[in-house]
Amino acid sequence: MCEYLHANIIAGANAVLPAHTVGNDHTPKLPKTLETLIQHYRFLNRVLHSIRLLRKYPHTLSSSYDHKWSGFLTRLNNIFNLYKSTFPIVPVLPSSLFSCRTDNFNSLFQSLSHASKLLRGLHFLKEKEFQDSSIKAHLESHDQNFDTDISSFINSALSRSRRQITLDRIFIDHPSAPQLLTDSKDISDAAVNHFQTVVPIKATPPSNTSALPDRWRSAYSPMNTVSPDIYSSLLAPPSLEEWLSTVSFMPNGKAPGPSMITYEMLKHLGPTTNNLFLTLIRKCFASADIPDL
């Protein structure tokens, strides 16, 4: 019955309830090679834009601008050599922009435009490879953390960053030999030692409340005004009204457990399914066991 209910609840929820995809805002750090490629691509586009303006306003060409072109030319040639496997034919660029006036900079513009398209294709390819490798690496890391470090798994899934303080010095106020520690290992050892010894731990815990100190004995002693019979029905199977009331107060938007059944799904169950589900819950109470899904 458990598998039947589970399958039908999931199928009904997928067919009726709205769903949305939840992701995190983690932005992976780009590798140096990809950062360099992006910088070169942006530089090439800036040069291309300046040539486009010269085509539109050729009278703006000046000696100072032509002098800048010599610096651009050196960097452009370095880019072509760095990514020569991307360019079937390495563009031959003029040493002076004044020589490009004859065709209104058309040849230069076409050469740079073609180079920009090739570099853009390489950029998209490398970025896609990096995204695929990043996704694969994070999935593997999540799987490993799920098995070995569940806290890191949850923090990563929720994009929670770890907040911590950094101790760069510790002063030990000893009556006869005070110390100021600045070495990182000494600081770490002193901090660990402090928290291990600041509260003395007894070898054997108290066997009953009468052995507790006075301040705790009253807090842990049973209250005379409360009848011990209140616990007798604590694990009694719930009624339908109790079950529906409990479900109605459950919050929305929470992650499901291994069964993948959310509170929203339970809130939308019909009368027949609710009765079947309640029967299963009562069986769980009676057997003190929860079936695996």
- How many structural domains does the protein architecture include? 3
SS elements, strand count: 2
The shape, in one word, is: elongated
The arrangement of helices and strands along the chain is HHHHHEEHHHHH
Instruction: Output the radius of gyration.
Output: 35 Å
Tell me the major beta sheet: 2 strands, antiparallel
Q: Number of helix segments?
A: 10
**Which ranges are low-confidence, i.e. pLDDT below 50, for 5 or more consecutive residues?**
none
Strand content: under 5%
CA(first)-CA(last) distance: 12 Å
Structural class: mainly alpha
- Largest sheet: spatial strand order: 1-2
Percent helix, as a range, is 55-70%
Mean pLDDT over the full residue set: 85
Provide a brief overview of the structure:
This is Reverse transcriptase domain-containing protein. Helix content is 56%, strand content 2%.
Q: Can you walk me through this structure?
A:
The protein has helices at about 1-15, 30-55, 65-80, 105-150, 150-155, 185-195, 215-220, 240-250, 265, 270-285; strands at about 170, 180. By secondary structure, the chain is an all-alpha fold. It folds into three domains: about 30-130; about 165-225, no CATH class; about 235-285, no CATH class. The longest helix is centred in the middle third of the chain and has 43 residues, at about 105-150.
